[in-house]
Structure formats: C-alpha cells, structure tokens
Amino acid sequence: MPSRVVDHHQLPWRFDNSFGRLPEALFTRIRPVPVRSPRVVLLNHALARDLGLDLTALPDEDAAGLFSGNLPPEGGDPLAQAYGGHQFGHFSILGDGRAIVLGEHITPGGERVDIQWKGSGPTPYSRGGDGRAALGPMLREYLISEAMHALGIPTTRSLAVVTTGEAVYRPEALAGAVLTRVAASHLRVGTFEYAATRAPWCLTALVDHAVRRHYPALTDAKCPALSFLRAVFDRQADLIVDWMRVGFIHGVMNTDNMTISGQTIDYGPCAFMDAYDPATVFSSIDHHGRYAFQNQMACAQWNLARFAETLLPLLTPDQQDEARDAVIAFQHDIQRRWHVMMGKKLGLFGHHPGDVALVDDLLTWMHLNEADYTNTFRQLMSEDLPGLGEWTPRWRARLSRQAEPIEAALDRMRQANPAYIPRNHVVEAALSAADDGNLTPFHELLEALSSPYHRRDGLESYERPAPPSDEPYRTFCGT
Questions:
Q1: Among this protein's residues, is 256 annotated catalytic?
Q2: pTM score, whole prediction
Q3: Which of 165, 227, 383, 476 has a Cα at 20 to 30 A from 109?
C-alpha cells in the first residue's frame, strides 16, 4: 500500500467515524486495492465547497490518489458494510462488494456525511466479483445523482470520478474507474435485515445509532424504535412521490437500495419516462414489471413491511400492532401525497371535489395519446396547450375557483414541473462520447440539468423526447 497520505492541511477533513464503533459483525475494516495510474476525470467543486473542502488547492496527482483510494486521508476509518436485501422478493446476504466507506466527515454546517469510494476493489462481500467499476456507469451515476439533486429530490451525491489506468471486463474490456459518493449514510433497509439475523444486541445497537444519526429528536420518544419506523415511512413516502413527479423509475427497488435516511441511492438501471405509460419498465432484468413506474409506491410499502419486521423484536405486542397498522396505512398515505403532488403540477391549491378525477382523466389522456410526461405539464403553463378536449375547460374552471391569482398557480406549476430531465437518449449520447474521450457533451448536459426548472434558449434539444424506435430503451445494473 502507498505510505503517503494526502496532507490534512490541504483538505481539512473532520472525521468522526461513528459506524465503526458499532458491533464488528456489521462491517469489515479494509483498504482499497491500489490502482495503477489514476487520473481525475471529474471533480464536483460546488459539492466540495459545501463539505468545507477546497479541491482547487489540491494538486492533480494528489486528487487522483485520494479519489482512487491510493492516497487515503488521515482520520478515516475505511470499511465495507455488511447488509442483506430482498432482491426481486428473495432474501440474500449481501454487503459492499465493490465499495468502501472512507469515513464520516462533519461539514462546516455540522452535517455528518459518509464519504465512499465505489469501484475500489474486492471486499469480503464481493461474492466472486472483481470489486471494480467501469467508467461509463460511474459517469452515469455522477450525472443522474447531480441531476436529481438539482431537481430537489433527496439523493446521494457524487464528488469525483477518476479512471484507474486498468481495464475491467463486462464482458468486454472497459476503462476502470472509481466514483466518490457522498451520502447522509449508507444505512439501508437491508442493513437492518442483516442485523436482525445476528444477535439481538447487534440490532439494538444499529437502531440506536440510526436514530441518533438521522432522527435525533426521537431519542427521548416513548418507543424510539416505533417512532423511527414511522419517520422512515414518512421520508420514503415523500421520496417515492418525488420520483414520480419527474417521471423517474429507479428500476431496482430491492430492500438493499432503500435508505433509512430517505435519499435515493444506486443509479444502475434507472431511467426517466418520456411518453406517459404507468407500466413503463426500463431495467433489462425486471422481466415482470415488479419495479415499473406505477408499482413504485406498492414496492415501497412492501420494502417497508420488511423493515418493520426487523424491528418487531424491539416492540411490545401493542407496539407491534401499531407497526402493522402503520404498514397498512402507508398505501393510503402515499396515494394521498401522490394526489397532492399532482395537484401542484396542475397549479391547484387545496382540495376540491373532482380533483382526483381531474388528475386521473389527464393521465388517461396522456397514456392513450402517448403524450410526453414532462412536456405536457410544461405546455399547460404556456399558450401552446395540447389538444386535451373537454379536459382543458374543466381544469381552467377549477383554477378560476381558487382564491389565489392565476400567477400563483403558474408559480406553483413552475416549481413542480421541470423543463429538463436527463433524457435517456441524451444521456446515452453523452456517455458514448465520453467513452471516446470527448467529455464536452457530458459537461453541456450536466450544465443544462443544473437548473432544470428554468427554460433557456438554445437548450431545446434537451427538451425533446427520444425519436421513435422499434427497439425499447433498456438499462442495466452497471453501477
């Protein structure tokens, strides 16, 4: 291993590694496997500033060494986390097979975040894999996660991408890369599923840690575990509804891909819907539509039921009944939030009889006419209204009954309806160019997506859906 470390005074890391103080059954301390010749491809300077780190002061060689794992900073506690997960409904023991959490950094604002290398080499949880990652998928996660952040959707962030100077085989030879990811934590529903298979004190320690880290106001609750469960339900309901607001389809909503912080994590087979179809599936491995657009709310409930099951040993019989009631109530609650969100997309204030039908009738029209999900809502804010037949006067009549002026309704719509999303065909074109060594399309797309709610001249190509094709768009678990 390299003996040199990145100078602490160049980057003032503030590590306080609380996860590493939990029972060692939950992780394995391990360092990244050194790579041959790392080279910086992307640095997220804006995110670095939020973290209190000035990457402009770091020499390129040191930046490449740091973000490849070759030159770990002082104060970290590198470890791979153990977790389980229901993958397409079937439980497996998993873990960080190609990722290592460098440590927990405290930002200038007092926020605690995980800094993680992804693609950093094999770990005890690699299950025969090489522990590496290819450049294209790492660029894809960087792009989509930063786009989600700009859309106002809770997400992990991307701090850097470096190439390794080594090939990975998937099955063809591809450029190897490491992504540095920033997250509120990497605690997943699957982390609790794993802990529940260990000694009871292991689960208790994990729950106490998670409450202190993410929901500190609940530490003095009558039953912190039950309050914790409800708080996770609340954040996940908001997150899934936010996904659907912008037409996002995660693609692999396994329990190991659901965080208890309420952040979106892992951008493997995700994609964004063009023409509205509630049954849309992009993932090449989702053969039965388990994680289709319309099923994401139900899948969230299923995953959270598994989460509730892990906490039952910490609850009294009466509290267990409350937990079961919370799981059952989740479906109604997330449907209610869905309709509130759709009302915002239509500029509606409050709730009036007929609002549900107004939303449902519009979506039915969009589905039958293969209308673009993003553009249809943007067009409602302009004079260029799509031909919606009798629906348009119904909607206008509903707006006219509101006490708020029409401009307030339009402001509401502008905040809910992006002009730019990561169009799948545009993302693929940018990644293809990057594979050929041309990062200009990638940077131009990233810039367009940095302010997604404000339409700008010259960016029309980012608004257009994919041209017609006989081949459906497919995504893969590459990240």
A1: yes
A2: 0.96
A3: 227
